[in-house]
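Hi R.,

Here's the input for the manganese (II) ion complex you asked about:
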Amino acid sequence: MIIGNGNPSLMAGPCSIENEEQVSKIVAHLLKNNIKIMRGGVYKPRSSPYAFRGLGIDGLKMMHEQCKPHNIKIITEVMQASQIEDMMEYVDIFQVGARNSQNYNLLDALGEIDKPVMIKRGISGTIEELLNSAEYIFSKGNEKLLLCERGIRTFETIYRNTFDINAIQILKDKSHLPVIADPSHGIGIREYVTKLALASLMAGADGIIYEVHEKPEEALSDGQQTLNFIESEKLVQKIEHLKSLL
Ligand code: PEP
Ligand code: MN
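And here is the predicted structure with manganese (II) ion in place:
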């Protein structure tokens, strides 16, 4: 699979892996819509320690068991270097979350493996800082890198983050790396996610990562920004139309 070859890559799935039934419904949705990469967190960096923090390695195995037969690739967040070894067998792309974007020990460790890594921009991270985080991994020998714009914290509080669409072109100019946009975390409000996803592709993003769940209102994390299956399907159809303009 190649990301960044001109054909937008879609990565979709729940914020968190919750149970087998949830995973099987998502897998069926991805297959129906020809989405080849599933996202789903099992180690969740939550702002409150009392929120759902993920199923850990068991959740990852659950995801892998259902994705593998259909050749759906898996992207999931790794929070610390000590988790890498156990996760290795089940992960296709390691995600470095916004809160860990400058965890240099983690970046060093990911530089030593032979698997793609997607690095998210830090919560208040500059573009330069994101590029330097990528450089940490690159300098250790892992060149399979993706950059992700997921919004930054600004003075604006009416939405979750300020989604920096400018960053997409700047990142592409300043690096040779594919840029993935995350409109779900970018705005944090479900009804606007589709429009921002389309805007990101028009702005040059190589792909989109977004949250989808059969029943977003019952999701254990980030339900407020998660598309339901109908919305997700409509987004995929709109992206198909948009391809002729890219
Ligand atoms: C996520 O992808 O669910 C996530 C926690 O993202 P971020 O690190 O961008 O907040
Ligand atoms: Mn999330």
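One thing worth noting: The first helix runs from residue 20 to 32.

Cheers,
M.
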